[in-house]
Amino acid sequence: RCVEAFYIYFHAGRVEEPYVSITKKRQMPKDGYTEEIEKEVGQAEGKLCTHRSAFSRASVIQAFLGSAPQLTLQLYICVLQQEVTVARSIFMVLSLLSIVYGALRCNILAIKIKYDDYDIHVKPAAYLCIFMWRSFEIATRVTVLVLFGSVLRIWIFLVVLLNFLGFCLYPWIIFWLSKSPFPENIEKELSRLGTTIVLCLLTFLYAGINMFCWSAVQVELSDPDLISKSQNWYQMTVYYIMRLMENAFLLLMWYIYKTDFYLYVCAPMLVLQLLIGYCVGIFFMLVFYQFCHPCKKLFSSSVTEAFLSCFKILYFICQHHKSTLLTGKVAEKSPENTDEARGSSKTIDSQNGNIHQSVSSNA
């Protein structure tokens, strides 16, 4: 692909192309109006676009199935040896940049797939917000996993296994609940077994991405494109709340079971820094969706309104659960209260009777 892409690029414009294709894109709405623009795309430009999309997908695969495990392993070695060499630090920085770049490409691909009908222009501020968002999110996540794995080496396998199985099976469970037919139009040359293998590999990549950060591309097996094109704010809110709780729990377990090996580390300060770093990543994510998203004009509601509505729903659920518990406790205590009331009324009646007897005797 690289050789062919360079060959097409350097030979473009020298020979007149036999045919061109016409694509129609809509601009972002301005003052409530959208314009449709027609553009001629030559054969060479179309091939270059195909290669560029393939390179973007390959960078995502390489980042989360290659660089992410490599970064985790190198950081684990540094923690055990209590030393960060120059060569290892360079490799860790390159691995982190590779993961962040893959996550950034995943965000841009998700935007282009969801809003394929529109002509999208991503501004430098959007790239900067995505870079900061993914850098803080991935760096803190990898550090939390390494710290937890350094003190509880057996339990880290259970944490990783539960994360992978949960995210791998989630698209299949949604597909089974939707009762949609099995997707057959992925590739004409693939058999049913080949299609199943491709879908399993896709969900495996989806689980690998969600293991370290939020996957901007949501897999939906019932959709012909295998990708959900709706913006699900509720799902994103639940993911980040659960991930923040999981990181806090893993750090708490590390703090409880840490050995004398970590005497040189201020443990409370490190825990606080990691939690704040993850919250900073969430902050840059909110800034991106609120101000820098190239298609923010197409959102039915702003990100702040969406997240506030999600938090209100969770708050009402918690309040309803508390109210049911309180009513249950009141119902349990009600017979005792009635017995006490009856006993008190009997004592009052007896006291009144004694008073009447004393008054009559005096009379």
Automatic annotation (TrEMBL):
<feature type="transmembrane region" description="Helical">
    <location>
        <begin position="154"/>
        <end position="177"/>
    </location>
</feature>
<keyword id="KW-0472">Membrane</keyword>
<keyword id="KW-1133">Transmembrane helix</keyword>
<feature type="compositionally biased region" description="Basic and acidic residues">
    <location>
        <begin position="333"/>
        <end position="343"/>
    </location>
</feature>
<keyword id="KW-0812">Transmembrane</keyword>
<dbReference type="Pfam" id="PF09815">
    <property type="entry name" value="XK-related"/>
</dbReference>
<comment type="similarity">
    <text>Belongs to the XK family.</text>
</comment>
<feature type="region of interest" description="Disordered">
    <location>
        <begin position="333"/>
        <end position="363"/>
    </location>
</feature>
<feature type="transmembrane region" description="Helical">
    <location>
        <begin position="269"/>
        <end position="291"/>
    </location>
</feature>
<feature type="transmembrane region" description="Helical">
    <location>
        <begin position="237"/>
        <end position="257"/>
    </location>
</feature>
<dbReference type="InterPro" id="IPR051773">
    <property type="entry name" value="XK-related_adapter"/>
</dbReference>
<dbReference type="InterPro" id="IPR018629">
    <property type="entry name" value="XK-rel"/>
</dbReference>
<dbReference type="GO" id="GO:0005886">
    <property type="term" value="C:plasma membrane"/>
</dbReference>
<feature type="compositionally biased region" description="Polar residues">
    <location>
        <begin position="344"/>
        <end position="363"/>
    </location>
</feature>
<feature type="transmembrane region" description="Helical">
    <location>
        <begin position="86"/>
        <end position="104"/>
    </location>
</feature>
<feature type="transmembrane region" description="Helical">
    <location>
        <begin position="125"/>
        <end position="148"/>
    </location>
</feature>
<feature type="transmembrane region" description="Helical">
    <location>
        <begin position="197"/>
        <end position="217"/>
    </location>
</feature>
<protein>
    <recommendedName>
        <fullName>XK-related protein</fullName>
    </recommendedName>
</protein>
